[in-house]
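Risk register update: the risk that structure generation would not scale has been downgraded. Supporting records follow, first protein first.
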Amino acid sequence: MADLITLPSQTRVFVDTIVFSLHFGGRSATCSAFVTRIARGDIKAYVNAQVLSDLIHKLMLAEACTKGFINNRKASELRALLENNRSVAASLIDYQHQFESLINIGIRVLPITRKLLIETKAERRAHGLMTSDSLHLGNMNRLENPILDIATYDRDFSHIPNINSWEPMDVI
């Protein structure tokens, strides 16, 4: 793992959900600076629908917790709250603004196709990855010009040959 703050300009990098979560949660100045670099066009960032789905979920949970609707960021707690009080969902709007502001800064979204879902069994078997991580690696590997860099706070990528894993070193 290398320090994310030192990622060279113009690098094409796949970005894992946790990097955005750390930025929005105020837990890493490096992740916030990284997002700013994406917005300036200094970094060419790629994600897939899995990353975006996980992120919007985490942002909604964080807002519900911050607003005191739930005590911790457990999906089961929010689900139970919404089952009993559907109107709470209407008051959770900040997460959507955060999400839309992020996806509008020039992040490229790679598709998760039926073919990718089947083919990434190779990544799962070869590298012992969970499904979502294998989809990330599969997206990276299957581009005409493969992406060799990933921004993450997940050590599951550090053992994969030819992949450069960049991690924020200032997480609080």
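Supporting record for the second protein:
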Amino acid sequence: MDLNRIGQTLKDKRIKLGMSIRDLANTCQIAPSTISLIENGKTSPNLLSLKAICDTLNTPVFSLLLDEAQEKIRLVRKSDQSSFIRNMSNGKPMTEHLIIREISEMYAALVNVPPHTDSGDYAHHGGEEFVFVLKGSILFDLEDNARYTLEEHDTLYYPNCIGHRWENGTDTEAEILLVSTSPYKF
């Protein structure tokens, strides 16, 4: 939570209503010093205090979080997507097109998997992944677990602490949508 933004929003609403900190404090039964700390982003209000302040300012509590959520909306046009070679397998490049990254808590990528290629050794890292097969067929191998042959529109979820790799043993290209909560580095 951005305490400075929330505090400033509450302060702006209070001033717009023509209330002093003391007026708000008396109505909410909260110490003026506490309201000052909240408005200046110096402390996180407890839920009861926040509800009392918001009720007095005729502001829904959830509205304080909306702006923060709206700031995270990201539109990435196809022309702005970064593409790179994930790795080479059997002399063929496995191309990845990043769809979501940066401040998101996840990243998403379209991965083109040429025929008779694989992702390399098992990967182990934090977070979790979701795979959706858009085109073709691909074998996902989860270390010390099962091997899953995924066809078009099949999905697979797994925690990334489980070693994972994939391969396309067919004669046609496969394309997967990969969504991960792992920190992404390239």
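The first strand starts at residue 82 and ends at 89. On this basis the risk owner (M.S.) recommends closing the item.
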